[in-house]
Design a protein that fits this description.
The complex is a heterodimer. Chain A is mainly α. The longest helix of chain A is centred in the last third of the chain and has 35 residues. In chain A, about 40% of the residues are buried. The two termini of chain A are about 15 Å apart. Chain A contains 12 helices and 2 strands; from the N terminus they run H-E-E-H-H-H-H-H-H-H-H-H-H-H. Chain B is mostly helical. Helices cover about 70% and strands about 0% of the residues of chain B. Chain B contains 15 helices and 2 strands. In chain B, strand 1 and strand 2 form a beta hairpin. Chains A and B meet through helix 1, helix 3, helix 4, helix 5 and helix 6 of A and helix 1, helix 2, helix 5, helix 6 and helix 7 of B.
C-alpha cells in the first residue's frame, strides 16, 4: 500500500459523516431507547430492561415464534433466489453479445426491471399472475394446473420467487458481464492454442475473473432479499395466512401496524445486528481479495 | 483497474484470431438463452402496457392479447387530474434533490478514501457500507418521529434526506472505485504545477471522473426512484410519491385496473430514459466501478 497517511482527509469525509450520522445514528438511538422501555400510552414510558429481547429470542412466546418464523422464511427465500439468480445471471452474461449495436440494446432491455419502482414490480406481477385477467395465471390454468397465488401458499411462493428472478437476475448478469469484459482477448487466444475445452475456458479463465464481481452480486442480492418488503407486500400482503411474511413485513406490522414500539425496536436491533454481521463477513472477504490482487499485479 | 474496462463500444481491431476469441466468450445456444431471457423480462411489461390501453370492461371480459379498441382515457385521467400528476412531480423532486445531495457530499469523501489512509478509514468505510445494507423497515418509525420533530414531515426534502441513508454510502462506494482507477501521478503533477486542492478538484479531477459521476447519479436516481417504504412513511398529502398515489385505484366500485396499469407504465419512463443515457457505462457501474 502506497497511499499516504494523512489525517486531514477526515475533513473531506466530514460532510458524509454528518449526514449519515443524522440519518442513521439518531434513528438508531431512538430505536435503542424504545427497545428497553414499555408504554401504556399517553407517551408514558417505563423501564423494561431486556424484557423485549428475552421475549423476542424465545421461540416459545408469541412474539419470538413470529420473529423466528419470518427469519427462517426469509433465509429460505434468500437461499432460493440466490440459487436461481446466480447461475442464471452467469449464463445470461455468457450469452450476451460483446460487440456492435446489440450490446446497447441488450443492456437497456436487461436493465429495465431494475428501474421499476418496487411497488410497481409488485403491481406488474400481481396483474400478470392473476388467474382472471393476467396472462401468466390464465395460461397456467388453461394448461390444467390449478394455480392461484392468493389462496395457495406454494403458488404464492413460486410467484414471489419468479418475480424476484425477473426483477434482479439482470443485476447479477450485468455484474458478471462487467467481469467478463475485463478479460483480455489474449487469454482466449492462449486457451485456444492450448486446445482448452469450452468448459475449461469457463472454469479456469472466466469464473476466476468473475469471482470479485460475483461476491458483490451475492452480497447485494442477499442483503436486498433479506430486507425485501414492498414487492411481496403488494402481491400477497404477506399471505395467504403468514406464508410470505418476511422479516421486514413482520417488522412493519409490529411498528406501524400495531404500534408495538418496544417489540418493534427490539426486533429492529436484532435484525440490524444480523445484517451487520453478514456485511462484515463479505467486507472482510472483499478486502482480502483486494490485498491479494495488489500483491499479484501481473495477474491483472 | 480501468484500462480493460473501457466502455462497451470501444472499437477493437477485428483480426481473425480475435473473431475466434469472441466465439469463446459465448457458448452454444447463447442466442436462444438470451432471447428467452429477454422475452421473460418483457412479457410482464408488455402485459402492463396493453392493459393500460384497454377499457376496464374489456379487461374484465376476458383474455385479449391486443386491445380490441385502443383507449387513451387512462392516460388522459392521469395527465388532467392534479392528484395524479402531482405524484410524479413529487417523486421526481425528491429523487433529483437526493441525487444532487448524495453526489456533492460523496465526492470529497470518495477522494479521501481513494487517495489517503487516515485514522479509522477502514472502519468508517465499513460503517458507511453497512448503512447501504440496513433494512429500511428499521428506519421507518424513527424517521417518522425524527422528521415530524424537525418539521420536515410531508416535504420532498424529508424523503430526499431519508434516502441519503443508503444513497450517500453507495455514492461513496462507486465513486471511490472510479477514482482509484485514476493514476495518482495526475494529482501530484497538478500540485507541483501549483494548483490548490479545491482548484485541482473542480478543474482537473472532476472532468476526469465525469463518467463515474454520471454512473453514480444513475444509481442514486435509481435507488431513490424505486424505494417506497420510506417515501410513503414520510409523506401524507403534499409530497406523496406517485407510487403511493397508485393505491388509490382501489375503490368501492372495484379495482380500476386500466388506470393502475397506465400509472405503472408512466413510472417506467424516467427509468428507461436514464438507462439510455448511461447504457455504455452501465455494466461497469453495476460493478460499482470495481472490475
Amino acid at each position: 500500500m502506497d497511499k499516504p497517511y494523512d489525517n486531514r482527509a477526515w475533513l473531506l469525509v466530514l460532510p458524509v459523516l454528518a449526514i449519515v450520522a443524522f440519518s442513521a445514528v439518531i434513528p438508531l438511538m431512538t430505536v435503542v431507547n424504545y427497545s428497553v422501555q414499555d408504554t401504556f400510552g399517553n407517551n408514558q414510558f417505563f423501564w423494561n430492561g431486556t424484557g423485549w429481547f428475552r421475549e423476542l429470542l424465545d421461540p416459545s412466546t408469541d412474539l419470538g415464534g413470529r420473529v423466528f418464523d419470518s427469519l427462517w422464511r426469509n433465509l429460505a427465500f434468500s437461499a432460493i433466489i440466490l440459487a436461481i439468480e446466480v447461475p442464471l445471471g452467469i449464463a445470461v452474461a455468457l450469452a450476451m453479445p460483446r460487440h456492435g449495436w446489440k450490446v446497447a440494446a441488450t443492456l437497456v432491455l436487461m436493465a429495465m426491471p431494475l428501474l421499476v419502482p418496487w411497488n410497481v414490480v409488485g403491481t406488474i406481477w400481481q396483474v400478470f399472475a392473476r388467474a382472471d385477467i393476467g396472462l401468466l395465471g390464465y395460461a397456467i390454468n388453461r394448461l390444467g394446473i390449478d394455480y392461484n397465488y392468493v389462496a395457495d401458499p406454494l403458488d404464492a411462493w413460486i410467484t414471489i420467487i419468479v418475480m424476484d428472478v425477473w426483477h434482479w437476475t439482470s443485476l447479477v448478469a450485468l455484474l458478471c458481464y462487467a467481469g467478463l469484459k475485463s478479460i483480455p482477448d489474449a487469454y482466449y487466444q492462449a486457451a485456444r492454442i492450448d486446445g482448452a475445452s469450452r468448459w475449461a475456458v469457463f472454469r479456469y479463465i472466466q469464473l476466476p475473473k468473475m469471482r470479485r464481481v460475483l461476491i458483490i452480486a451475492v452480497l447485494l442480492r442477499f442483503m436486498d432479499s433479506f430486507m425485501i418488503y414492498t414487492e411481496p407486500f403488494v402481491v400477497t400482503g404477506g399471505g395467504p395466512g403468514n406464508s410470505t411474511t418476511f422479516l421486514s413485513i413482520e417488522l412493519v406490522k409490529l411498528a406501524l401496524g400495531q404500534f408495538d414500539l418496544g417489540k418493534a425496536a427490539a426486533m429492529s436491533i436484532v435484525y440490524n445486528l444480523i445484517v451487520l454481521a453478514v456485511c462484515w463477513v463479505f467486507y472482510t472477504v472483499m478486502t482480502n481479495l483486494d490485498v491479494e490482487r495488489r500483491r499479484l499485479p501481473a495477474d491483472r | 483497474m480501468t484500462a480493460e474496462s473501457m466502455p462497451a463500444t470501444a472499437p477493437l481491431p477485428a483480426t481473425g484470431a480475435m473473431r475466434k476469441a469472441r466465439v469463446a466468450f459465448r457458448f452454444q445456444g447463447a442466442g436462444v438463452t438470451l432471447g428467452l431471457y429477454l422475452i421473460f423480462l418483457m412479457l410482464p411489461i408488455y402485459w402492463l402496457f396493453i392493459m393500460s390501453l384497454k377499457t376496464n370492461a374489456e379487461i374484465n371480459a376476458g383474455m385479449t392479447l391486443w386491445p380490441r379498441e385502443i383507449t387513451f382515457d387512462n392516460y388522459r385521467t392521469i395527465f388532467t387530474d392534479s392528484s395524479w400528476y402531482s405524484g410524479y412531480i413529487n417523486s421526481l423532486t425528491y429523487v433529483v434533490m437526493n441525487t444532487a445531495i448524495s453526489i456533492l457530499l460523496a465526492l470529497p469523501a470518495a477522494y479521501a478514501f481513494s487517495r489517503h489512509r487516515f485514522l479509522g478509514d477502514k472502519h468508517l468505510f465499513f460503517w458507511l457500507l453497512s448503512n447501504r445494507m440496513a433494512p429500511p423497515a428499521i428506519f421507518a418509525l424513527p424517521f417518522f418521529n425524527l422528521y415530524s420533530a424537525i418539521g420536515l414531515f410531508d416535504t420532498p426534502l424529508a424523503v430526499a434526506l431519508a434516502h441519503c441513508l443508503f444513497n450517500v454510502p453507495l455514492a461513496v462506494w462507486i465513486l471511490e472505485g472510479f477514482m482509484s482507477g485514476v493514476p495518482r501521478e495526475i494529482d501530484e503533477t497538478a500540485y507541483l504545477d501549483g494548483y490548490s486542492f479545491p482548484h485541482f478538484f473542480v478543474k482537473i479531477f472532476t472532468p476526469i471522473i465525469a463518467n463515474g459521476i454520471g454512473v453514480t447519479a444513475f444509481f442514486c436516481f435509481m435507488f431513490s426512484w424505486v424505494e417506497l417504504l420510506l417515501a410513503r412513511t414520510l409523506t401524507t398529502v403534499n409530497a406523496k410519491p406517485i407510487a403511493a398515489t397508485m393505491t388509490r385505484t382501489v375503490s368501492a366500485a372495484g379495482m380500476d385496473w386500466g388506470l393502475l396499469a397506465a400509472a405503472g407504465v408512466l413510472t417506467l419512463i424516467p427509468g428507461a430514459l436514464v438507462i439510455w443515457f448511461v447504457r455504455n457505462y452501465i455494466a461497469k457501474g453495476f460493478a460499482l466501478g470495481r472490475v
